[in-house]
Fold this protein.
Amino acid sequence: MTGSQAPLRDFHLLAKPAGAACNLGCQYCFFLSKENLYPRESPLMDEAMLDTYIRQLMESSPGPQVDVAWQGGEPMLRGLDFYRRSVELAKRYRKPHQGVLHTMQTNGTLVTDEWAAFFKENNYLVGISVDGPRVLHDAYRVNKQNEGSFDDVIRGWSCLRKHDVDVNILCTIHAANAEHPLEAYRFFRDELQAQYIQFIPIVERATADTIAFANQGWGGPKGTDRPLYKQEGNLVTERTVKAEQFGQFLISIFDEWVQRDVGKVYVTTFDVALGSWLGQHNACIVAPTCGSALVLEHNGDVYSCDHYVEPDHKLGNIRETPLKTLVSSEKQRRFGQSKYDTLPKYCKECPVLFACYGECPRNRFIKTPEGEDGLNYLCAGYKAFFIHIDKPMRAMASLLRQGRYADEIMQVPRGT
């Protein structure tokens, strides 16, 4: 804009206060390899950067709510005093109209009563990574000694529940649990009594040069000679969920959810899909364009996306360039616009394009039936899922447009 300042862009920023450092060694966690980006420095965010980050976040956020979101690696490695300070800084720098939501995604193994009391006192939303009951979870979510983490994770979950902390489950879908959708879902719903569940497909890309190492797993002690994971190659690891498996996993859970759990259990994939049927795009992966979900590393480096923390997608550092400038940069705009611009013809002619828009560009590395590049690896699964849920989604969308509740769908006899 000439002669005036461009309006601030709405965005979400994930901050990595301990970089890629983690006390676990989950085999599919390619983010562990991001330590290669900073080989000669501590992965811990210092106090000066914390102050700079919180101040610039408040200055740059245009909306009425600011999310102070922490992720890792394992963010709890940064220590409780760091987060106490972050809450104080958010109170200091927030604008009069701004509300603040503090969130953290953690593996849960380091949760104690002291941590849980802090989370409750400051209205944190805490996500815990759990991949299902013990056998499914421990298949890949292991510590540095390759021992299962299930007991420690469930202890942390129980501690958070005891303190009445707002919690949700993040479950990754992979080769070990993909054939057990209802076992996983019922464990979360009935045993953990989770009301909010997010399912994330594991797709680990590799090249001919990296596939052998990638299949061994990204976990293990610090210093392991890991290659830096990049979004390149058209091979996938043995842990990667197959497209058809992924679709059937979602379909199986949806069929149970739509009969008995609408309005009681909130599954992010289903909520986002319902938004698409209402003409909304409530997540970057299903929107026509992306670029509004960025990452801040421990030293102030900003990257275009959590899935693109690699040199070509570094935007700059907030010590040198204000956050609001990086978020609104031409490089980031092009990154987000390319999501739509690179859609193959096959996608643009698809009947469920409105629900997907090719999903995340990180997964677009196979060819269409016509041989065009850029089809999503998970396309077959997504397409089967969206076609399967079309009728109930239309019904729920109609209910909401009438000012009624989506859970009325459960009163409709099956087959009608």
